[in-house]
Design a protein that fits this description.
single chain, Beta-clip-like, 3 helices, 17% helix
Length: 162
């Protein structure tokens, strides 16, 4: 278990990862680990818990996240940012504060689900796609997006200019 992060109840979101100490902006928090990697064809064989803790690695490969990283909940205004498997504080995070990330950073399937983050800009619903975000948000997060999302972003940008 990660010494500086604890898993506990996060209300309507279920379990969440909480800071056990203060993190400064840009500080490394944890490395998210995969318990296994599966392909699109294997998704139906996963348990409900595994399906609920997936991270897109490419358009047809997914990582089943292991604790405690699998308990980082979504926020439309997150206090942490993924960059690959590493999670850094996006802004200062107080001890006891829930550590949140933006799930849309590496999403592409356009699934919809309720959002419980309650941030000022929250619409109450998450569209699971990097490309459904506002263009300024995409620009802000693009340097942190995985290679397959950056590649698709460039492909779409080239297609838009033709």
């Amino acid at each position: 278990m990660i010494r500086d992060v604890e898993v506990r109840d996060a209300g309507a979101k279920g379990s969440g990862g909480f800071a056990r100490r203060h993190f400064t902006g840009g500080e490394f928090i944890l490395r998210r680990r995969h318990s296994r990697i599966v392909t699109d064809g294997e998704l139906a064989r996963l348990s409900p818990w595994e399906r609920n803790h997936l991270c897109e690695l490419d358009f047809d490969r997914f990582g089943v996240l292991a604790p405690p990283g699998c308990y980082l909940n979504h926020s439309c205004d997150p206090n942490a940012m993924r960059h690959g498997v590493k999670v850094f504080a996006w802004r200062p995070i107080a001890a006891g504060e829930e550590i949140t990330i933006d799930y849309r950073l590496n999403s592409f399937d356009d699934d919809h689900w309720p959002c419980h983050c309650r941030s000022n800009g929250c619409s109450g619903s998450i569209v699971g796609s990097f490309f459904a975000m506002e263009p300024d948000r995409q620009q802000l997060l693009l340097p942190h997006a995985p290679a397959f999302i950056r590649h698709e972003y460039r492909r779409r940008a080239v297609g838009a200019t033709r």
